[in-house]
Structure formats: C-alpha cells, structure tokens
Amino acid sequence: MTDSPSVAVAEAHQPEPRWIETRFGRFRVDERSVLHFAEGLPGFEQNRRFVLLSSDELAPMHLLHAVDGPDASFLAVDPRVVLPSYRTVLAIGDSLKLGADDETPLVWLALVTVDPERGPSVNLRAPIVINPSRMAGCQVMPHNSLYPLRHPLGGA
Amino acid sequence: MLVFTRKRHEAIMIGDGVEVRVLRVGRDGVRLGVSAPATVSVHRREIYDQIREENRAAATIAHPVEDLKGRLRRAVTVLQVDTEIADGTSGR
Fold first, then answer.
1. What is the pLDDT of residue B46?
2. Which domains does chain A have, with CATH numbers?
3. Of A108, A111, A117, whose CA–CA distance to A148 is shortest?
4. Which pLDDT score is estimated for B69?
5. What is the pTM (predicted TM-score) of this model?
6. Contact A108/A142 with Cβ under 8 angstroms?
7. Alpha carbon A73 to chain centroid distance?
8. How many Å apart are CA A125 and CA B35, to the nearest integer?
9. B33 in contact with A, Cβ within 8 Å
10. Which chain A positions have a beta carbon within 8 Å of B58's beta carbon?
11. Domain map (residue ranges) of chain B
C-alpha cells in the first residue's frame, strides 16, 4: 500500500462544480472528483458514485459520501493512523476491478463505526481501496485476513 | 431455490464461468471448491453479512467528531511511544 488519503480526491476542479450538503458542512465537488464503485459497498449496492471529502474539521478522517442513490456517508481513516504496520495484499480480482497493477499508488481507508455499547472502532477487515488514477474504488474482503472487523478506537 | 444432490467430486456450474465442486463430505461439514473468474467475488456468507452490517452501522454515526479525532490522536501517540521504546530512545 502506498500514499495517503491526502491525495485530495475531492479537490475542486472546473468545470461545473457543485455544492453538496453533508452533516459536516458544504463541499464543492465536480464531476472529475467522483469515484466509481462498480459494485457499491455491501449493504449499499445501489450507491455507485462517491466523493472523498476532506476538511480540517474531519482530519485525519475523511468523509466518503455517495452522490447517487440513497443517502450514504461514511467516516473513514487511513488504517495506518491506528496501526502503522497495517498491510493487506490486494487480491488479483480486486486489482482488476480497480485497474491497478503492483506499481499503482492506492489509497486505503478504514470505515469508522460507533457501536452504542462497544464504542468507536475502525473496520480493518474490509478496507476501502481507491485507485486515484482511475477514480475507481471498492471495498475489499481479503480471505484469511487477520485484521479485525472492529478495531477499537481507544478510551475516551 | 434450485436443489441438487451431488456426490464427492461432482460439481455444478453457475453461468459459464463459475464451478462449485464438492471436495469432501464430513460429518460436520462439506468442503467445497469454487472456481470463478478473478473478478467474481466469492465470500463466506457470514463474513459478507458481517461487513454489510458493519457498513450500515458506519453510515449512521451520530457521534461527536471531536471525540473520534481525539481517540485517533491518542492512537497515534501511543504508537509513537511504542516506537521510541523499540528504538531505545526513551527512558532517558
């Protein structure tokens, strides 16, 4: 895995920027910042187009926000922020889906969840992988991964 | 639902690219071999369900973002301390 999510996928470029409303404020995006998730995400199969939004308010997290289909918005963080040794090998099929080869810089993100009882955690088991050069993304579920679905995010 | 009776080493085809073969039949389970194109995702159902439920939970966070940021900062700090110990640069 290489590079960091600070590859500002949602940086505004012309033409035809538009504003989208999120619970973390308004962001300006344009068509070139749209990421294509060919299969959506498990549970959100109808959402195929997302933007990755960044702001000081969210850093080091980002907001993976659907721009089509039902409302879907996820807080996400580079898994190495919580586990610097984090490393997962991309399966061949996932590489094909992303149009990536071994040399392609990829952005890896772990989704943040807050369970009312267990508290906040990050999903290291099934990370989001983005190939910025193709603006393609998917959620991967590596077989036999030892990383947990719920890696707890420290005490309050 | 289509139901088949298959013996060991027998298989079914799904479409023209996916084969599911019975490799072994034991008392507690059946070992299956799945051959599919690389771009076809194959997962144990319960793993897929877990990830789907976790995604749904992740999409409905009503938790203060400042608290999450604080936790992430502390996660980084703890790991930096660990690194210093490993490098022998702490405890001076």
1. 93
2. 18-151 (2.30.290.10)
3. A111
4. 92
5. 0.82
6. no
7. 10
8. 23
9. no
10. 74-75, 111-113, 123
11. 11-87
pLDDT tens for A90-140 read 988 999 999 999 899 999 999 999 988 889 999 999 999 999 999 999 999
The answer to whether the CB atoms of A111 and B55 lie below 8 A apart is yes
Residue type, B89: T
Beta pairing class for A35-37 and A136-139: parallel
Cα separation, A44 vs A139, whole angstroms = 11
What does the radius of gyration of chain A's CA atoms come to, in whole angstroms?
15
B71 interface with A at CB cutoff 8 Å:
yes
Q: How far apart are CA A42 and CA B51, in angstroms?
A: 7
- Structure letter (DSSP) for residue A116: T
Please report the ipTM that was assigned to this predicted complex. Answer: 0.85
> How crowded is the C-beta side of A48, counted as CA atoms within 13 Å?
3
Residue B85: the pLDDT is 57
Chain segment B44-87, per-residue pLDDT in tens: 999 999 999 999 999 988 888 999 999 998 877 666 666 555 55
Q: Look up residue A41 and give its DSSP letter.
A: B
